[in-house]
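Saturday, quiet lab. Running sequence design on the structure tokens for the scaffold JK sent over.
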């Protein structure tokens, strides 16, 4: 046991004092906050500032569509109207779009009795779905308003009848209504799941790189004279895992300090409230440790069979498959946290740290499901460490020869 703690201390101090730890501790939050901020503002401002023309055979309907578009302050659109528009106008508008004098035009036609309407949006960009969505909403509102007016309803009543209704979301907990924010819940789950997956894989790869570096420098041959291979692997896992926890703790403290600042208050004033409970933080730490132990033991065993870091990196995409699967289901899991599929994938060890945490952030699952998930992960970690330690103790002494599957199976049978 003493050897394990000595190796763990060595690994921890070596990593914590390194320049890479200091740089990543500062740069990683900055980079990801920048990415999320850019994504948020880009999505908010997508399709804005467009210059379009509405061409219609009904001047009144065209004017209503224009008014609907101009009420959207985020769109900041320049809207021209040509009504009534002859067929010859269409070719002129196509030329203006092709010469980039216009971003696009909306060709709107209605039947003489107003019963049917058709709309076509022609633009230079084929993927401008934000502008298409704005135009679709504007046309829908304008057509409904015009039909209601045609049936004799007063203009003031039409505005009241077609006004949007905002839904305030609440969550039911213990038979009581608790205010909630679906958007904030999604982002809280997404950010913490992303942070969990990123750190687990990053520090798991660090264990693998550490094994490769010591193997190529032949330090192992000296250390094995006094330390058992199993103790060396255990110390390495504990030491590098403690580095990961230290970095997460620094980020958590920084986030707590920032959340009480005036800048954070101004950012959250738009209705986006991200709340994380103490239970979620505790479970986050537990799932980090188990996920880290699972992936790092796997990478340590793989690294013992490799001779270079490039060879080890070839296995990295395999570790990313469960993460891609988990993030591919994020919307489904957050919307359906108690479905059979969500429960099943949250019990699958490689995906459990992310998918179970998504369920916890959306709707706290029954305690027995969390306990079962943790138990399955703990058993899986034990099995992976048992297998990796047996591959590790033979593979670290092999040089210049690629380990094959039959050879690794023979290593597992050695006492």
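Result came back. Writing it out in full:
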């Amino acid at each position: 046991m003493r050897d394990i703690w000595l190796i763990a201390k060595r690994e921890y101090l070596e990593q914590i004092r390194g320049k890479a730890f200091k740089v990543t501790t500062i740069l990683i939050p900055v980079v990801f906050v920048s990415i999320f901020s850019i994504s948020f503002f880009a999505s908010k401002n997508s399709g804005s500032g467009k210059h379009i023309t509405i061409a219609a055979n009904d001047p009144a309907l065209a004017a209503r569509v224009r008014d609907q578009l101009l009420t959207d302050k985020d769109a900041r659109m320049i809207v021209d109207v040509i009504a009534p528009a002859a067929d010859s106008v269409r070719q002129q508008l196509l030329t203006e779009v092709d010469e980039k004098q216009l971003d696009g035009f909306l060709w709107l036609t209605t039947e003489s009795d107003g019963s049917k309407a058709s709309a076509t949006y022609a633009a230079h960009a084929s993927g401008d779905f934000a502008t298409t969505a704005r135009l679709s909403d504007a046309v829908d509102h304008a057509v409904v308003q015009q039909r209601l007016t045609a049936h004799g309803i007063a203009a003031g009543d039409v505005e009241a009848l077609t006004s949007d209704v905002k839904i305030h979301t609440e969550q039911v907990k213990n038979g009581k209504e608790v205010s909630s924010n679906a958007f904030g819940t999604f982002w809280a789950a997404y950010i913490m799941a992303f942070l969990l997956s990123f750190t687990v894989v990053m520090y798991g790869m660090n264990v693998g790189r550490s094994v490769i570096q010591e193997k190529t420098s032949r330090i192992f041959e000296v250390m094995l004279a006094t330390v058992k291979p199993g103790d060396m692997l255990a110390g390495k896992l504990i030491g590098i895992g403690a580095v990961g926890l230290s970095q997460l703790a620094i980020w958590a403290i920084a986030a707590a300090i920032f959340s009480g600042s005036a800048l954070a208050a101004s950012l959250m004033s738009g209705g986006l409230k991200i709340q994380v409970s103490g239970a979620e933080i505790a479970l986050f730490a537990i799932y980090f440790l188990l996920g880290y132990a699972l992936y790092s033991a796997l990478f340590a065993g793989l690294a013992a069979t490799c001779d270079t870091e490039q060879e080890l990196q070839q296995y990295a995409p395999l570790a990313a498959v469960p993460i891609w699967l988990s993030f591919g289901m994020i919307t489904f899991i957050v919307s359906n946290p108690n479905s059979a599929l969500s429960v099943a994938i949250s019990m699958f060890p490689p995906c459990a740290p992310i998918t179970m945490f998504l369920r916890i952030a959306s709707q706290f699952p029954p305690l027995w499901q969390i306990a079962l998930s943790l138990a399955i992960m703990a058993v899986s970690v034990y099995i992976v460490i048992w297998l990796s330690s047996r591959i590790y103790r033979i593979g670290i002494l092999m040089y210049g020869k690629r380990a094959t599957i039959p050879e690794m199976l023979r290593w597992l049978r050695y006492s």
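Notes for JK: The chain has a mean pLDDT of 76. The chain has two domains: 2-29+181-413, 51-163. Ask whether to fix the surface positions before the next round.
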